Amino acid sequence: MEKEKRIIYYATNRKEEIARLQAEYSLPSGYNINGEVECMLSKDDIKNLKEEEKKGLIQIRKK
Known about the structure:
The chain is an alpha+beta fold and about 60 residues long. It has one domain: Alpha-Beta Plaits, CATH 3.30.70. The chain has helices spanning about 15-25, 45-55; strands spanning about 5-10, 35-40, 60. The chain has a three-stranded antiparallel β-sheet with strand order 2-1-3, with helices on one face. The radius of gyration is 11 Å and the shape is globular. The two termini are about 20 Å apart.
């Protein structure tokens, strides 16, 4: 399955939510000082992460 480069911005400060997202979507642990992490995501992951984006937990960015 083809993967796309995306930047995930954590819009929440709740560490337990960030840990859940990292575990559930196999995101890299840690993030930069701006609250962003660079990762390669499948189209299915992007689709599912859009639901988390609607909850206000993250922003999916393409740089």
